[in-house]
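User: what does the whole thing look like in 3D?
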Amino acid sequence: MPRTGHCGTWRLVMANRIPARELVKQKGQLADDVVALKVDGRVVDLHTPIAEDATFEVVRATDKDGVQVIRHSTAHVMADAVQRLFPGTKVTIGPAIEDGFYYDFDKPGGGFSEEDLATIEKAMLDVVAGNTPFRREVVSRNEALALFEKMNESFKVEIIRSIPEDEEISLYKHGTAGKDEWVDVCEGPHVPSTGFLRAVKLTSVAGAYWRGDERNPMLQRIYGTAFPSKEALEEHLKLIEEAKQRDHRKLGKELDLFFFDPVAPAMPFLLPRGAYVYNRMVDYVRKLYVEYGYEEVITPQAFDPKLFRTSGHLGNYNENMYRLWTEDVLEEGQAVDAKDAKDADPAKKLAKHLQDHSFALKPMNCPSHCVIFGQRKRSYRELPWRVADFGRLHRYERGGVVHGLSRVRTFCQDDAHVFCTRDQVPQEIEKFIKLLYAVYKAFAFDRIDIKLATRPDKRIGSDADWDMSENALREGLERAGLPFEISPGEGAFYGPKVEFHVYDALKRGWQTGTIQYDPNLPERFELAYTGEDGKDHRPVMLHRAVFGSLERFFSVYLEHCGGNFPAWIAPTQAIVLTVSDKSEAYGRSVVEELRASGLRVEGDFSADKLGAKIRAARTFRHPYMLVVGPKDAEAGTVSVRSRDAGELGAMPRAEFVAKLLAESASPR
RNA sequence: GCUGGCGUAGCUCAAUCGGUAGAGCACCUGUUUUGUAAACAGGCGGUUAGGGGUUCAAGUCCCCUCGCUAGCUCCA
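Assistant: Here's the predicted 3D structure for the full assembly of 668 residues, as structure tokens:
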């Protein structure tokens, strides 16, 4: 989620300055809803002195920038209220974010409770009612340090110290001087006065590390949001409620798609209906693999750890790998142990033995594919070789990060590796992107964010290789004409990656597809192909996945369609509802006939009344309901009710079969 | 892993100050014979996540473990 900057400073380099408010007033543009103005693309507040001949645009409360100003100001008011109610609490940073704002506090004696939020909110309303102006004041570094040192605001002192020497330091104050004034070091801008903050809501509390580093102390974060009007706030809260209804964890339960059980934490059980959707996803890419020239392999699940030493996983991915032990390995380890117990800690020796000998569940398919490539002599004529694998992967994820199907400990990727020459890389990237967009279109995704993740600190391979591979990916994206952002340091340990992100119902972004350039694994596995010149050459390797994890893509897709699967992928395409048991025989014959035509059809022959059957079928979101009663039995029809188009009336069975078969074809 | 919150029937949720564990839905059995968003009656279903403690008495208070959850950190 993008964040705006924290409270820092920026520099003014202008002469003949007058307060911005005066200038706006002179031009007759000072309306009630003007919260700031924009000069040279930078948002400044109405108190900031600017050049008297500056050109500007007013920023209104309802503008995107204006809303951010309101939220940032609200964060100040919240910090004010918190410090008043909880003396001794230190302030840190408090930016505006996409849907609101937060402020991180260092509060002695534990966090804030839900009741605290209500109290804080009330105190904030008092500050708003006071309607005191926000005042900007430029101070020297030493003045700022002296002020915050005196206030014992150690985090602010640290922030001030980290501000570059050539930047101006500004303070923002609100409240009444000498009475209830509150001050923060901040670059602004802010609304003219606290009275501009009309619709404020504190939403949640959470822990957050100082400066986002888990080695630092944990602070108490309060999230809130603010809008230009009460109506806009209400609207936003309503949208959040609706989004919760789409949460894939809720839909998964309601639609009998999957569940979790503590016997296998963060590892989903896919029920028949969920497994159906999952399998159709696999079918869909398999079909494209034919067209795009992939071959599929099946590889082992568990490996001698030597494999992962060769691949580098043991050094770089160890903490995410599950290990298997057997009685034999354990006994060997204990025997080694007893023999050498004099010169080493027995527990450590056993641990070492297990680390060296207990098999590991694969967290990725790439090492297997390297083994396959190296299994016999390869020719340049075979390249590019695209090898796909739907193998099940296991990765141990720390407790706090797992999330429904989106982040699990066992999953399957629509994984494939492309072994090719360096020259073939750009065209392979282009080809992959074409494949990826075809799939995303089939699943009706229109918004996809692309990021180029570059070399991380913890990595293997030379800098020259990284330069080359990062450039190759950048060129591939540029050739495809796709806009992307750079995520510095976010690459995999073996190579940079292009990440394709989509968003869940609650606007959390998830990486799905990816393509990664890897010059390292072929090196480590000493892979070679025989070139035209009869000599050995090292191939390079691309890791790529369109869905990424099938589980994650399923979760995002489920939320995207709200459980209303289109007919081609819906577990049940139609359900026959009998009006009474007088029509049961006809109803059963309809089910049979439709199934014989290849349609996925169920019947509801319970003693419920029709209305109840319809209600049940609707909550299950089946694409079609086929009502059958004596009239239909007489005429040989079904009365069709479409989930998406409403009642379609009675039609001959053959007509419905043709219609649904046409809709059952997977998208192209 | 960290900081909060939560965990009661398959699901959604009740249970006052610590005082007999309950409802609706689902499921089963009947009755009803039904034409486009919930017919009626009865029944089944629980070691209140697990373990320990305080107490005459614990779903409720305390401790530990497990799981879920919102963030943080990490990641497909």
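In plain terms: Residues 64-85 of chain A form the longest helix (22 residues). The domain at 17-241 of chain A is CATH 3.30.980.10 (Threonyl-tRNA Synthetase; Chain A, domain 2).
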